[in-house]
Amino acid sequence: MLLEIDAQSQTPIYQQICNQLIIGIATNKLQPGEILPSVRQMADEIGVNMMTVSKAYTLLKNDGYILTDRRNGTMVAAKQSLDPPFQARFSRELELLLAEASIHQISETMIQEKIKQIYQKFE
After folding, report:
1. pLDDT in tens, 42-55
2. Which one in 16, 38, 41, 116 has a CA-CA gap of 20 to 30 Å to 3?
């Protein structure tokens, strides 16, 4: 999976890496047990500092999306069950996003249609 980094984006590069890998896992482009490039390889492939990739991998590991093993490298973790900390973060972030949608006058119907359209990519 080749990542696309936008150096002009306001989203930090480590977050762009995290976001794209999470989407890759959710859309099954990355399978559980699949080996990811090493920090050095990934940094070379996308043209960023190794510390940036290391930060992304650390965050993904802490959230349970990837596993690291000194012998086997970094790999995609199995899909997770719903846990209370994720549920709380999901609710907080969704509430903020829906508040912004309300400010921009996006209707509930439009929001529901968009959610359905996006969620279908992950099934």
Report:
1. 999 999 999 999 99
2. 116
